Amino acid sequence: MTLATGFRRTGRAVLTVLALLCLLAIAVLVREVVKELKFLSSASSDNVHWTLSQAEVEFLEFRNAVNWARTAPETPLSSVIVEFDVFYSRTSTLANGSLYSSLREDPAFDAPLTEVRDRLNAMIPLIDGPRDELRANLDDLAAQADEMRVLVRKIATTGLQHFALESDELRTSVAVTLLRLAVLTGLLLLALAALLMHARRTAQQTEKRGKELAIAYARLNTILNTSLDAVVVTDTTGRIQNFNPAAERIFDCRLKDVRGKRVGDIIVPEHLRDAHEAGMARFAADGEHRVIGQGRVKLEAMRSNGETFPVELAIETAHAGDEQLMVAFLRDISHRLAAENELVQARDKALAGEQAKAEFLAMMTHEIRTPLNGILGNLSLMEDTKLSSDQSRYMRNMKISGELLMRHVDAVLDVARFESGADKAQEDVTHLGHLFQDIVDSQTSAAHAHGNALQWGWVGTPEEWVEVDSSRLQQILLNLVGNAIKFTREGRISIEAEVIEQGEPAKIEIRVSDTGSGIAEGDLARIFEDFQTVSHQVSDSVGGTGLGLGIVRRFVQAMDGVIGVESTLGEGSTFWLRIPVLPVERPVEDSGAGPESEAPSDLEILLVEDNDINMQLAYEVLVGMGHHVTEARNGQEAVDITAKRPFDLILMDIRMPVMDGLTATKMIREGDGPNWNAPIVAFSANVLPEAKDRFAAAGMSDFLGKPLQRTELAQIIVRFCAGRDRRVKLDGATPLLVEQKESPMEKLRNRYMSETSSLFEWLAGLPEDTHAIADRAHQIAGSAAAFGQPGVREALLLVEQAAEAGDREDLVVAISEAQAAWKAAPEPSLVG
Amino acid sequence: MYTLTERFTRVAALLLLLLGATSVAAGELEEPTGPVLLTISGDIENTNGDGTAAFDLDMLRALGATDVTTETIWTPGTITFTGVELKTLLDHVGATGSEIDATAINDYTVVIPVSDAVAEGPIVAYEMDGKLMSRRDKGPLWLIYPYSSNAEYRTEVIYSRSIWQLDRMAIR
Asked: To the nearest whole angstrom, how far is the Cα of B159 from the nearest Cα of chain A?
């Protein structure tokens, strides 16, 4: 573009210079032609040819006159004299006239002329002398004239020749000049033609550009007119210059009504107007802009009826000639915002639904597991009692069903836990052989029950010590083996392990094969889905939630492994899984002793539990392990008891009346009692991960699920109490509780303690029901004396009286005195 | 062409002679006393015998002298000619024609339109640089145009009309 322009400019300049040069040359030539024409017209030449020939004529006249005079002697001689004078005059002209000066330079002309002049001059005395003498010399004159004739002839011819040449030169010169003029004129014409063409081309280009501009303008107008966004153009003072159809539609006003008006008054809502004016003033003052060129900004705008609505706004400045314009693009986003709000609400609802689901799940697991725990625990206890054979059978059936139910609940819980994403992979160093052996050991009895043999073994070189998420692997294998046992009768179940890829990590394939019923080909594809059960002749009696393999698949995938199955109906199935494991060195063991042997006994343990049955179960287990157990029925009791004496371990239920476990734990931790740093282990049926987090936040040391498992409990005890002596021994005091087995007395005493504690808790809340207060106070007061606490008895009787009297003020005083008496009272012990 | 002119002139002169008897003129001019230098014939109102007007030097001088200083193509340098204006001369003789046949002593004749006779125009010169002109110096009379002062007089036509050794004029 610029190059072309440059060429065009250069071309134009060259042409202009050329034309000027031509004009100049033509001017010069014209001047020359004019000069020549002037020269021709001024005709300084006279008719030289005639003059020269006239000289000859006049000479001949003179000669004739002389000859005539000789032949006629009587004639006067005047004609001779006249013709002499005429000829003489002619020679004078030739000798002196400026016209002949160039000619005279030619000696061929000048010499004869001079000689003729000399001869004429020589004749003058004779001519002017007496006539007689002249007449006498006429012959001599004639002779001389004869001689002069050649000279005169020569003068004439030389002169004619000279002027002919001169005239030729003149003609040539004129011709040359005219030729030059013609050439230059031609050149000028060419230059003019070139200029004309150039001008035409320029005109064409201009026209083309004009058309292009018109098209561009039309296009721009079309864009503006069809834009869905409002486009508002203003000058820098905010006067509206243009308002496209979309703007007219959105703001509900016509361009002709708003043109030239201040944009702030038309589309800016009143509450934003001050800010708008300030912005315009800033821009006018120093060109500062906060909105201009910042991309899309969300603001509010106003329609002609004063309604405000949200817009997305982008402002740019533009230059149209010298004028600076501001172009605002506005989009009505009220619909979009409404849609966004709806989406947000929908999302919030969905999230709330998820939350509710999680809460429901947590609740249900708790609510189901707690009573189930109770049922199973009591069944276990009942087994130890004397039963009839029928009763024993019923008991066993009940136990099987209960355990199955518990497994189902656990399965659902596993899925919930996994889906919540909190159940992260935890890799630890594991001996695979031990892991397989444990599974075989734990499942052997179940396998035998169906007449199945269960075994495991390595194929190829074993890789014993590896880093793997052993807990999940265990769960996977238990599930697979459990299934195999379930669907196999009088058969064989084997676990095979094989290293199929060496390296770090290595890859291990584990196959669980059975000789059971197998799976129909049509079912193979869906068995890893959730809630998929295969109707089966053998397993009808067992049934299931259909979650087992779904969980297995999730776990395998979470371990970056794959799982698959091959099966032939009626011959058996092989489930295989390939997982990466990191081979490690055999770890150095602390000691050869197992945790069980290390577990201390004879510990002081506080058991906080509101449910009587659970309490009793746990109590039995702990006592069975050789520990001393103190019971508390709620958090407040726990707080009170822990303020008085130290414990080696506190097992704390979470959901309890009066004060929940979390609050109690916080209070124990924050208080300055002897148990502020004792291990407090949550003891709850709520085993969801987020619940555990809450427990830890409240200051709890660990978590123990319900129902209480001996092994888990033992592990906890080892973790927190290994090497710890009995605190009671440190006290050096006589044990307050009976030794290993709690006596019925002890139970009574504990019951008294807990009932009294709960009474005081209840009283602390100043309940409205005065009758209930009276009843309960009376009941405990009756026991207090028996447990060697007469002060408490007196105080509670006062409470009873105040409650029955309905005197609130007295009641409050009595209760606080009773609490003081309870705190001041000695340890309860059965009198006698 | 010159022969034609000459013939024509002769015819004209003959006619004038025939007419001269009848027109015993409106005005009489004085008679020349010296040698006659110029004879004007033809359509003239004032004559001094034979229907012609003859002039000697004194008569020409008496008509008033006019100087013309000019260069000519026939002479070297600038020359001041003295003579009587052609217009004055024609007025004096009461010329009524439109053309003049001017003839030299050797019968060289040119045709001069009467319109050439204007003030500050041609003169019938009798002096060159204050001296009377001899016949050998293109005298005694020479029709001189002011060539130097007017470019229109530097044309071949004018040069051809600049007749020297003038002695007759016929008006028609």
From this structure: 6
